[in-house]
Write a sequence for this structure.
């Protein structure tokens, strides 16, 4: 199962790269994807829209998009928007490792200011 690792602020500058990575995975036939947000510090509404869109595509293909989140501000955004009940949210990479026995592709998106 592919894992997309996103770090730093996930905002207008980073959202297009995230969308592209998720779109490529979906086009390659992956319908179960983990998005690792453990090292993310911020998630804006545009990035949230990208994740919701990818979740819908995964589910239409019979899969799921799972999130790894520990940042309280990101968890709060998911709670406020009601998406904490929509997404499958995990709190550790160990949970992904046990669910991800096939290994998988790892995409890394860096914070825009680090590029």
């Amino acid at each position: 199962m592919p894992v997309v690792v996103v770090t730093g602020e996930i905002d207008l500058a980073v959202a297009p790269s995230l969308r592209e990575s998720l779109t490529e995975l979906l086009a390659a036939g992956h319908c179960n994807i983990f998005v690792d947000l453990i090292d993310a510090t911020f998630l804006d509404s545009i990035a949230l829209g990208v994740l919701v869109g990818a979740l819908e595509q995964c589910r239409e293909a019979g899969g799921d998009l799972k999130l790894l989140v520990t940042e309280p501000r990101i968890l709060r955004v998911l709670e406020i928007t009601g998406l904490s009940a929509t997404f499958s949210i995990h709190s550790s990479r160990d949970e992904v490792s046990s669910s991800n026995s096939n290994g998988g592709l790892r995409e890394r998106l860096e914070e825009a200011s680090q590029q």
Observations:
- DSSP finds four helices and seven strands in the chain.
- Confidence is low (pLDDT under 50) at residues 101-115.
- The first helix runs from residue 15 to 27.
- The two ends are 27 Å apart (CA to CA).
